[in-house]
Amino acid sequence: MHIIVIGVNHRTAPVELRERLAFPEQTLPEALARLRETRGVLESVILSTCNRTELIFVADQPSRAVEHTERFLESWSGVPQAEFRPVLYVHREEEAVAHLYRVACGLDSMIVGETQILGQLKDAFFLARDLGNTGSLLNRLLQQVITFAKKVHAETGINDHPVSTSYAAIELMKQVFGDLKGKRVVIIGAGKVAQLMGQYFRDSQVRQMTFVNRTLEKAEAVARSLGGQAVPLSALTDVLADADIVVSATGAPGYVLTKQQVEPLVQGRSRRLLFMDMAVPRDLDPQIHRLPNTFLYDIDDLEGYVEAQMAERLKVARRIEGKIAEEVAAFRQWLQTLGVIPLIAALQQKGQHIHRETMESLQNKLPHLSERELKIIRKHMMSVVNQLLRDPIQRIKELALEPQAEQSQNFFATIFALEEYLLEQELQQQKAEVKAAPSAQEARTEVPLPFRL
């Protein structure tokens, strides 16, 4: 069985193409049903976000399965293969496993270390599992991937280093004040940056937010949505007198506040006053920082802070990469031992068959034995069978990790004469697939037979 991931993301494809290849949430059940019926696909998951679309699947013949899934993607999205194939990546086997670990940990995201993708991957997996698209391989792999990602996020704190300028601004303010709770904030502007800063301030439980804008109606709309108040630009100096923090994010061509305007407001003031200029070109006169008890930061200060935080994230990311390599090796080892499961089951089945026939023969030859005596004999004979099988089972597990694993498994099946039992397993598996198509997806990969009968 082969694990494969094909897809596009923010690095390989422009947003215009990504949005055409995306799977809207309401269409995912139907899309998963179609993918489940795609030739050569035994298990499947669809991961679709604003930055990536990926088909995660298990196949028996990888090359053909990739061709069929590309056709599925073309048919579903309406985007010709000639258009998306140049930017489509294909990861196979261990490369695919490592890719899924990196995606879940946020190492493949636009913002390294972000946690949103982990929730999106978990939702995609749970939906596919509930609809019968996954089986033993993807269930095991994605459960381990999700558990691992949760653990590294908790232990490494990679997401503790803010890398957006708005969040960085809040963190910088906390370094000045210690805590923003109870502070009075004035926000100049009513655009996206002003709104985002307002959300952060609300979450920080500031005492009061006042939005100031040239168009009062816009300021009022933002203030209503965030629980603040609004005043026109002409009242700016009036609200500055009681402010602890002033954030400016307008598109004005010149300074919104000059040193001369601010100086009378800070004379005789004992409290700190922090100005955060998030506009380009700048809204605030750089000379404001010369005033007493006044702090002024601009976008360049924030960029430096963000770069430092990103450097810290990348350090953590390198440590996580090392842990991922260990996880991939562990999964490879589990995958290699998966092929011996039908062998072990067949050997145990044969042991039970011998035990059952021997007990029947014993009862026929010694009919005077009581039920209690038979129970004791049955128990001890089963113990003998289990002890005889213990070492061969352990040895075949070890041989599964060796380079000549397939030859060893064939020899094991021959020397213990397991062909009949393995054939019976395969027949039962085929009957199960015919009886229930959704559950057959799991049945196909539950007991793979990588060796020849």
Report the helical percentage.
55-70%
CATH architecture classification name of the largest domain: 2-Layer Sandwich
Would you identify the CATH H-level superfamily of the largest domain? Glutamyl-tRNA reductase, N-terminal domain
Q: Strands of the biggest beta sheet: in what spatial order? A: 7-6-5-8-9-10
- The count of β-strands is 10
Count of helical stretches: 18
- Unreliable segments (pLDDT under 50, ≥5 consecutive)? 436-453
Rg (CA only): 32 Å
What general form does the structure show?
Answer: elongated
Describe the structure.
With about 450 residues, this protein is an alpha/beta fold. The protein has 3 domains: about 1-160 and about 315-335, Beta Polymerase, domain 2, CATH 3.30.460; about 165-295, Rossmann fold, CATH 3.40.50; about 340-445. Helices cover about 60% and strands about 10% of the residues. The chain contains 18 helices and 10 strands. The strands form 2 sheets. A 6-stranded parallel β-sheet has the order 7-6-5-8-9-10. It is elongated, with a radius of gyration of 32 Å. About 30% of the residues are buried. The model is unreliable at about 435-453 (pLDDT under 50).
